[in-house]
Amino acid sequence: MAAFFTLHSDLPREGPGEAADVAWAAKVANLSPTAQIADVACGPGGDIAALLQAAPKGHVSALDKTASFVTAARRDWREDDRVTLLQADMARIMNSYDMIWCAGAVYFMGVEQALRAWRKSLKPGGVVAFSEVCWFTDAPSERPKALWEAQYPGMTDAAGIAAQITAAGYETVETRILSDAAWEAYFRPIDARIAALRPGADADLTAVLDEAEEEAACWRAHRDEFGYLLSVVRPR
């Protein structure tokens, strides 16, 4: 884990995404300017600015289990009283929200389990907006298949995500595939960090750098076979 955090320290975000994704979800949800939002598994806070833009008179409660990510986000947002940063488990959301936002981290709990756990924290009419990696093909190439079998063996396709949403007692309002720009917003800073860390890297760090490099290269070569699906859902 030390090698992992050497690579990921002070990166702007911990997964694919862009401000346009938040704006789209807020529009689909008809989010109020005064909305109360939970940014679950917020990482270093890469989506907080976009969430505040979507609800400029509202409040964002951003939480992550990893102390270093919370510390990084607090450096950026400590002077904004519209933001509360918490070191907390995504499975234990408190208070009530108009929107629960979760960028690329639902897989830690599972879609169905997360939606069931978060239902009690949604205000009437509230939504969950989450992105989840999925297959775009029934016959993936060996390279991405090997990558995701190692990282996320439970990965499914859009129909599989929809089935989990339904099983959790939710309905899908709308979905959107994350753009290439959203992926590059994550990978380009990692590319630069890998290049800076390569000289003198020990065996543990080299293994982490190799894994991150392969993930980026695999997506760039096979982006038509997998990606992230952003879903806006609400309880039935």
CATH-defined topology: Rossmann fold
* First-last Cα distance: 40 Å
Determine and state the CATH class: Alpha Beta
Low-confidence stretches: none
Enumerate the strands of the largest sheet in spatial order, edge to edge or round the barrel: 3-2-1-4-5-7-6
Q: What is the alpha-carbon Rg in Å?
A: 18 Å
Overall number of strands: 7
Concise summary:
This protein is of the alpha/beta class. It contains 9 helices and 7 strands, in the order ααβαβαββαβααβααβ.
Secondary structure blueprint with pairings:
Layout: H1 2-8, H2 19-28, E1 36-40, H3 48-54, E2 59-64, H4 67-77, E3 83-87, E4 97-103, H5 111-118, E5 122-135, H6 142-151, H7 158-167, E6 170-177, H8 180-197, H9 203-222, E7 226-235
Task: Note down, in words, how this protein is organized.
Helices cover 43% and strands 23% of the residues. The mean pLDDT is 97. It is built from nine helices and seven strands, in the order ααβαβαββαβααβααβ. Strands 3-2-1-4-5-7-6 form a seven-stranded mixed beta sheet, sandwiched between helices. The chain has helices at residues 2-8, 19-28, 48-54, 67-77, 111-118, 142-151, 158-167, 180-197, 203-222; strands at residues 36-40, 59-64, 83-87, 97-103, 122-135, 170-177, 226-235. The longest helix is centred in the last third of the chain and has 20 residues, at 203-222. The protein has 236 residues and is of the alpha/beta class. Helix 1 crosses helix 9. It has one domain (2-235): 3-Layer(aba) Sandwich (Rossmann fold).
